Amino acid sequence: MKNYSYMTQGTCARQITFSLEDGKLHDVHFVGGCPGNTLALSKLLEDTDAARAVKLLKGNPCGDRGTSCADQLAIAVEQALKQGA
Fold first, then answer.
1. What is the mean pLDDT of the chain?
2. Angle at CA 66, nearest 5°, toward 65 and 71?
3. CB under 8 Å to 32, separation ≥6 — which residues?
4. What does the H/E/C string look like for 10-68?
5. Taking the CB of residue 67, how many other CB atoms lie within 10 A of it?
6. 82 by DSSP, 3-state: which?
7. Smallest Cα–Cα separation from 53: which of 19, 84, 83?
8. What is the pLDDT of residues 56-69, one digit of tens each?
9. How many C-alpha atoms does 34 have within 13 Å on its Cβ side?
10. Is 74 helix (H, G, I), strand (E, B) or coil?
């Protein structure tokens, strides 16, 4: 299992950590952000196909920010997958 850490931009959450193993997401944690939403995302995404999660979450905005915690997670996971996770 490979661990990742991503410093977010434009969201209340400041950092996202997660692990990837065999193309699946594990242990997603947000530092900051809306606790209910980020905890729900973490639970829903456990053992989910990482590429599918990117497709579902990328581009989802929070208000007029142009991004969201979910979008930032998608960006982070996409970068990790490109690194050959």
1. 95
2. 110
3. 11, 12, 13, 14, 15
4. CCCEEEEEEEEECCEEEEEEEEECCHHHHHHHHHHHCCCEHHHHHHHHCCCCCCCCCCC
5. 19
6. helix
7. 19
8. 999 999 989 899 99
9. 9
10. helix
Q: How far apart are the first and last CA of the chain?
A: 9
- pTM for this predicted structure: 0.94
Length of the chain: 85
Tokens matching residue 23: 């193309």
Residue 49, strand partner residues? 24
Compute the distance between CA of residue 31 and CA of residue 16 in angstroms, rounded to an integer.
6
Quote the tokens at residue 57: 């979450």
Encode burial over 20-48: b for 16+ CB neighbours within 10 A, e otherwise: beeebbbebebeebbeebbeebbeebeeb
22 contacts: CB under 8 Å, gap ≥ 6: none
